[in-house]
Amino acid sequence: MTKTALIVIDMQNSFLHPDGENAYPDAQSVVPNVRALIEKANANGRIVVHVADRHREGFEDFEDKRLPRHCVTGGFNAEFFEGFGPSGAVGEIEIVKRRFSAFFATELALFLNEQGVGRVVICGVKTNVCVRATSQDAFAHGFEVVVVGDATNSNREHLARASLEDIDRYLGKVVDTGEALEMLA
């Protein structure tokens, strides 16, 4: 049986809190499904990786060339949204990233390989940016990629749909929360 880990992308105030700098109307629609995935993973001893997008105040950051400054370390927007982030449960870790992918320039691939993980179930925000980039890099690192389509979304619905289609065709599999819960059981 393939060892499975859950990767939860950017469930932070910036995207989910109504006052967040990158909040969008439909962002919170993923909250119940992502919470259900975390609960199931924790209940079954799965590794849960809480990914946070964070950038340093006062320093240059390559992403600033494409995006407004966001998720500055220590600020409200960089904090996990209420009920998200490591809870202290055994098997939960935090990975901080400075680019779209949770794998780029982090220890995520090394850590998952050391734990014998072969499949990653990915959820969170935003489908067409950080979820897509993380899926691409997970595939490149040799992981079986599963994205939970109804536990991720974007403020650009047409790009979210296209990203899910690409992921399902080229990188892995897109499933609904029910199927993902079975994989985490």
Structural description of this entry:
There is one protein chain. Helices cover 33% and strands 23% of the residues. The chain has six helices and six strands. Strands 3-2-1-4-5-6 form a six-stranded parallel beta sheet, with helices on both faces. Helix 2 runs parallel beside helix 6 and helix 4 runs parallel beside helix 5. The two termini are 12 Å apart. This is Cysteine hydrolase. Keywords: Hydrolase. GO terms for molecular function: hydrolase activity.
Provide the descriptors you would attach to this structure in a database record.
single chain, 185 residues, alpha/beta, Rossmann fold, 33% helix, Isochorismatase-like_sf, hydrolase, Isochorismatase-like_dom, hydrolase activity, Isochorismatase-like_hydrls
**Total of helices:** 6
Number of strands: 6
Q: What's the CATH architecture name?
A: 3-Layer(aba) Sandwich
Mean pLDDT: 97
**Integer-rounded radius of gyration:** 15 Å
Based on secondary structure, the structural category is alpha/beta
Query: What share of residues are in beta strands?
Result: 15-25%
**For this structure, what is the CATH class?**
Alpha Beta
User: What is the CATH superfamily label?
Assistant: Isochorismatase-like
What share of residues is helical?
A: 25-40%
Describe how the helices and strands are arranged.
Elements: E1 3-9, H1 13-16, H2 31-43, E2 47-53, E3 92-97, H3 108-114, E4 117-125, H4 127-140, E5 144-153, H5 157-171, E6 172-175, H6 177-184
Parallel strand pairs: 1-2, 1-4, 2-3, 4-5, 5-6
Helix pairs in contact: 2-6, 4-5
